[in-house]
Every structure is written in structure tokens, then in C-alpha cells.
Automatic annotation (TrEMBL):
Cofactor: FAD
Name this protein carries in UniProt: Ferredoxin reductase
Record organism: Caulobacter henricii
Alphabetic keyword roster: FAD, Flavoprotein, Oxidoreductase
Residues in FAD/NAD(P)-binding domain copies: 3-301
Signal peptide location: none
Domain Reductase C-terminal: 320-403
Organism placement in taxonomy: Bacteria, Pseudomonadati, Pseudomonadota, Alphaproteobacteria, Caulobacterales
InterPro entries assigned: FAD-oxidoreductase/Apoptosis (IPR050446), FAD/NAD-bd_sf (IPR036188), FAD/NAD-binding_dom (IPR023753), FAD/NAD-linked_Rdtase_dimer_sf (IPR016156), Reductase_C (IPR028202)
Length: 405
């Protein structure tokens, strides 16, 4: 009947509450979240929801009735400000306290800001929360000019959605290619070309010096070479930083996020950290990583819930991720650590292909565009860690089933 307190009512926190009940936990569960909303999915905020193809209700992980029926006590618009590990109490900004036997930190990450002049002008936005998404959507529309600073997945997705909404879009990226940190050059070139063909402009290897404003509202982006690109709205999508302050102040081990083990447990046996805020081991690659993805949030929510109820943890999963842009479905499995060979299978020009990353004859990662079999079989092969028939892989006439055989 342990009393479980979860701080952070996002994808990981909300899912942890659900897995605890699913695994038979009967004790009290308190879910503290500083947003006013029930736990919701963030991925559609840059995709279907932004384009008007999904309702706000459809974003919720569970309906309000589920929390009442499952006796999950919600403290929405409630911010945890301190953890007292000696007395096992979480302090909220309201002055309320919540005692715990087990504590799950699921505080996620926040959008990184650009420390440049004009960054606080109205119309310079980030996209992390539903409230951010409302602001962004209200600023987009026919003939609005959007400048996206940062050519990562969120930036590309928002540019694609903006084009569908009739806005002009420019992607400004510091590196020489988009997706430079997260994808291989084949994919970078493909996505840039696909966007460019749909009217998105690019400024690559660009140094943004300031946002210019008029009457307190952003009016343009200024580059280090003095050029100014006019815009009505600017989205800063330059990555996220973990919300690990609570853990740091409580003396928990933190590196790139809160350091946890394979059960999502911190150095304090009673405290777990899951989702975007955690720095976790990835046994498959013998590394530690901080992953920002829904599948990771779910996997760690299962790990923490299983450890709390005392049942065996879930089998290790191959990390994966997806991104939707226009009619493209990108699915990525694995991480290309130490890969020494790349094999492109399929037809890049026809937007149906996969890039396989190999280390010797072992598959490390696959990036698949509109190619679900390559993604699914690739993901299985990565998990198996067995040598694969590399020659077969590069021949699209041989089915993925036969490649795996
Ligand atoms: P979050 O969902 O961020 O939840 C953390 C919650 O904790 C937040 O509500 C935060 O406000 C709250 N909190 C923080 N500190 C406190 C405190 N002290 N007290 C109380 N509450 C607190 N992933 C994919 O796999 N595929 C995608 O296509 C994809 N697209 C994305 C698109 C966008 C626009 C964004 C923003 C993210 C996307 N992601 C995607 C990433 C995915 O949404 C995250 O990995 C996931 O939400 C992580 O869940 P989390 O619970 O760890 O963090």
C-alpha cells in the first residue's frame, strides 16, 4: 500500500500512474503537474493538432473520469519546489506537502532559449506545451511569415504544418545541414529538398545575431553578416534541457539529466526518474543517454512501476522515434553509435527508402521514410544483435522478411 507521488503530469508521469494501477498497485497515487491540463501527448502539437486535424480532447492520455475511477489524486497547476529526502516529503509552491514511500520524478525538459537580443519580443516562441501550441497556431495562417530557428525535427514539422496552413516558412540552421545532430546526411538532404519543393526557404550555416522588433513584436531575424529576414512570427527550436533542478537540489546524482539505473531508480532507492528528465543506461549499446521520445517515456514508466510493485521489469526495448511531415512518415529505430557503413535501400527520389547503419555486419540503427517493413524488421534485427546478411539488405528485390531469415 505504498504511497506513490509522481512529480510531472506529462507523458511519462501520466503513464506511470496508469502502469502502477495496471500492475496491481492498490496504494494511493498523487500526480503533481504544473500545467493546468490532464497528461497529454505532445507529438501532435507540431503535427496533426497544429494543422487542425486533431482536437484538444484527443491529445489527453486518459479522460478525466479515468483518474477518479482509478483513485489517482491530481494536483494540476501544482508545482513541486523541494524534495525532503529525510522526511520523504515533496513540498509544493502552494505550501501543501505530499508524503511518499516512492517518488517518481517525471518533470520532462523545457525548450532551450536563445540568449540573443530580442529573444523576449512578442512573437518569438517556443513549442513545448499545449499553451505554446495555442499561441503558435494563432500566429500562423495564410501569408504569415514564419522563421524557424533550428532545423531539428520540431522545427521541420512546424514548417511543414505552417505550409499546409498557407504560411511562408524559412528554416534557419547553424549547421551546414538540417537534422545535423540527429540524422545522417542522406536524410538531411532528402528532407531539405522535400521542404524546398514545397516552398520552404533555408538559411544553413547561419549565425542568428538578434531578433528585430517593431512596437514590441518581432519583425525579423538578423544574421551576423547584417542581413535581416522579415518575419511575423519566429519559432525557436534549438533543443531542450532537462528539468532536473529538484533532483539536483535534493542531492541526487545528475549528469545529462537525473542519473538512473535499468529500473529507472536514482541513487536514492525510493526515488525514480523517468522520461525526458532522465539520464539512463541503454544496455543494447552499453551507453548512457538522455532520450526525448514517447517510447522511452513509456518504457521507463513501466520500469519504475514494475520496480515499485515488485514485479520483474519489462524486457529492454530498442529505442525508437517517429516524425510526420507532409505525407512523409519517418520512423527511426536504434542509435547509430560507432556505425562504419551506411546502406540505402529503396528509392530516395520516390520518398520510399531506408538508411541502415551498420557496425561490421551488426545493425545499429535504421532511418525509414515511408518504409514500415524496413523499420519494423530493422528494429527487430537491432534488438537481436546478430550478424545480418548485408548483401541481401541492399537489394530491395529481396523482402525484409528474407533479409531477416
Ligand atoms: P513532458 O511530457 O515534458 O512532461 C513533464 C511535465 O512535468 C510537464 O507538464 C512539466 O510542466 C511538468 N513539470 C516540470 N517540473 C515540474 C514541477 N517542479 N512540478 C510539477 N510539474 C512539473 N516524441 C516522439 O517519440 N515522437 C514525436 O513525434 C515527438 N514529437 C514531439 C513534438 C513536440 C512539439 C514536442 C514538444 C515533443 C515531441 N516528442 C516526440 C517528445 C515527447 O513529447 C517527449 O519525449 C515526452 O513528452 C516526454 O514525456 P515526459 O513526461 O518525460 O515530459
Amino acid at each position: 500500500n505504498a504511497r506513490v507521488v509522481i512529480v510531472g503530469a506529462g507523458h511519462a508521469g501520466g503513464s506511470a500512474a496508469a502502469f502502477l494501477r495496471q500492475y496491481g498497485h492498490t496504494g494511493p497515487i498523487v500526480l503533481i503537474g504544473d500545467e493546468p491540463l490532464l497528461p497529454y501527448q505532445r507529438p501532435p502539437l507540431s503535427k496533426a493538432w497544429l494543422k487542425g486535424e486533431a482536437t484538444a480532447d484527443s491529445l489527453a492520455l486518459k479522460p478525466a473520469s479515468w483518474y477518479a475511477e482509478n483513485q489517482v489524486s491530481l494536483r494540476l497547476s501544482g508545482q513541486a519546489v523541494r524534495i525532503d529526502r529525510t522526511t520523504q516529503v515533496v513540498h509544493l509552491a502552494s505550501g501543501e506537502t505530499c508524503a511518499y514511500d516512492a517518488l517518481i520524478l517525471a518533470t520532462g525538459a523545457r525548450a532551450r532559449k536563445l540568449p540573443i537580443p530580442g529573444a523576449d519580443l512578442a512573437g518569438v516562441m517556443a513549442l513545448r506545451t499545449a499553451a505554446d501550441a495555442e499561441d503558435l497556431k494563432a500566429a500562423l495562417g495564410p501569408d504569415k511569415r514564419l522563421a524557424v530557428v533550428g532545423g531539428g525535427y520540431v522545427g521541420l514539422e512546424v514548417a511543414a504544418s505552417a505550409r499546409v496552413l498557407g504560411s511562408h516558412a524559412m528554416i534557419i540552421e547553424r549547421e551546414a545541414r538540417v537534422l545535423a545532430r540527429v540524422a545522417c546526411p542522406v536524410l538531411s538532404t532528402f528532407f531539405q529538398d522535400y521542404h524546398a519543393a514545397r516552398g520552404v526557404a533555408f538559411e544553413l550555416a547561419a549565425a542568428v545575431e538578434a531578433f528585430e522588433g517593431r512596437d514590441g513584436h518581432v519583425s525579423g531575424v538578423r544574421f551576423a553578416d547584417g542581413r535581416v529576414v522579415a518575419c511575423d512570427v519566429a519559432l525557436v527550436g534549438v533543443g531542450a534541457i532537462p528539468n532536473d533542478e529538484l533532483a539536483r537540489e535534493a542531492g541526487l546524482d545528475c549528469a545529462n539529466g537525473v542519473v538512473v539505473d535499468a529500473e529507472a531508480r536514482t541513487i536514492d532507492r525510493r526515488i525514480f526518474a523517468i522520461g525526458d528528465v532522465s539520464d539512463r543506461p541503454l544496455p543494447l549499446y552499453d551507453r548512457r543517454v538522455r532520450l526525448e521520445s514517447v517510447p522511452n517515456a513509456l518504457e521507463q514508466a513501466k520500469q519504475a512501476a514494475a520496480a515499485i510493485v515488485g514485479r520483474p521489469g519489462p524486457a529492454p526495448e530498442v529505442p525508437w522515434f517517429w516524425s510526420d511531415q507532409y505525407d512523409l512518415k519517418l520512423q527511426i529505430a536504434g542509435l547509430p553509435f560507432d556505425a562504419d557503413q551506411i546502406i540505402v535501400r529503396g528509392d530516395v527520389a520516390a520518398a520510399k527508402f531506408a538508411v541502415f547503419h551498420l557496425k561490421g555486419d551488426c545493425l545499429q540503427a535504421v532511418e525509414a521514410v515511408n518504409a514500415p517493413p524496413e523499420f519494423m524488421v530493422g528494429k527487430q534485427l537491432i534488438g537481436k544483435r546478430t550478424p545480418i546478411a548485408v548483401a541481401k539488405l541492399s537489394n530491395p528485390a529481396i523482402s525484409m522478411k528474407d533479409v531477416a531469415a
